[in-house]
């Protein structure tokens, strides 16, 4: 995200927010072996340590649409649960490991947790992440802050305000042109 809290501009352009995915010497992936990033050693270790146990991801329909579901290959984990009002009828990858969940974020997370068993579930930022945090379904918040000010756009926690919540002190990992912050969520 940008220093001022945005994950994209109003047109879903991310600009230089993901520059750090290609500015290093260490090849790594989030899970898809064909999607290789070249990052700093510190960012590679962060990616390996946080994505290595991810078995399922929960995303929103908007991200699914703008990425075309990564052409049927989960970006991280083995299975993606897409929160949507209406599943697509014309997606070109019907046998891909994607489940379309029409009864809300808590249901998608429950299904992802059942699938992941003792593995981790990743929840994307934006409105889906905000809803998961609001309902107490998030253990940690991970931020990768790029030294960019977008000025306006789509906020990390979506379009609605969250109630005030105190997080634990962050663990920090300094990459090249990115600062990775991991906050444990305090029980309320």
- What is the succession of H and E elements? EEEHEHEEHEHEEEE
The secondary structure category is alpha/beta
How far apart the termini lie comes to 26 Å
Total number of beta strands: 11
Strand arrangement within the widest β-sheet reads 6-5-4-7
Low-confidence stretches: none
Number of helices: 4
Q: What is the global morphology?
A: globular
Question: Strands, helices and their partners?
Answer:
Blueprint: E1 6-8, E2 26-28, E3 37-39, H1 41-51, E4 54-60, H2 61-67, E5 79-83, E6 98-101, H3 105-116, E7 120-123, H4 127-134, E8 140-145, E9 154-155, E10 171-174, E11 179-184
Parallel strand pairs: 4-5, 4-7, 5-6
Antiparallel strand pairs: 1-9, 2-3, 8-11, 10-11
Structural summary, described in words:
By secondary structure, the chain is an alpha/beta fold. The protein is 20% helix and 25% strand. The protein has four helices and eleven strands; from the N terminus they run βββαβαββαβαββββ. The protein has helices at 41-51, 61-67, 105-116, 127-134, and strands at 6-8, 26-28, 37-39, 54-60, 79-83, 98-101, 120-123, 140-145, 154-155, 171-174, 179-184. A four-stranded parallel beta sheet has the order 6-5-4-7. It has a three-stranded antiparallel beta sheet with strand order 8-11-10, covered by helices on one side. Strands 1-9 form a two-stranded antiparallel sheet. The relative contact order is 0.21. The mean pLDDT is 95.
């Amino acid at each position: 995200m940008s220093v001022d809290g945005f994950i994209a501009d109003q047109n879903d352009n991310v600009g230089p927010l993901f520059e750090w995915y290609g500015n290093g010497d260490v090849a790594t992936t989030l899970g898809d072996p064909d999607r290789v990033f070249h990052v700093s050693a510190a960012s590679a270790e962060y990616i390996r340590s946080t994505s290595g146990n991810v078995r399922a991801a929960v995303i929103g329909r908007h991200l699914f649409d703008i990425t075309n579901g990564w052409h049927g290959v989960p970006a991280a984990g083995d299975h993606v649960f897409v929160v949507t009002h209406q599943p697509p009828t014309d997606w070109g990858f019907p046998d891909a490991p994607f489940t379309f969940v029409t009864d809300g974020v808590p249901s998608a997370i429950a299904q992802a947790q059942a699938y992941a068993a003792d593995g981790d579930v990743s929840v994307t930022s934006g409105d889906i992440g905000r809803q998961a945090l609001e309902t107490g379904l998030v253990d940690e918040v991970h931020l990768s802050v790029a030294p960019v000010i977008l000025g306006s756009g789509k906020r990390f926690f979506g379009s609605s305000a969250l109630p005030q919540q105190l997080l634990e002190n962050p663990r920090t990992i300094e990459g090249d042109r990115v600062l990775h912050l991991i906050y444990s969520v305090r029980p309320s």
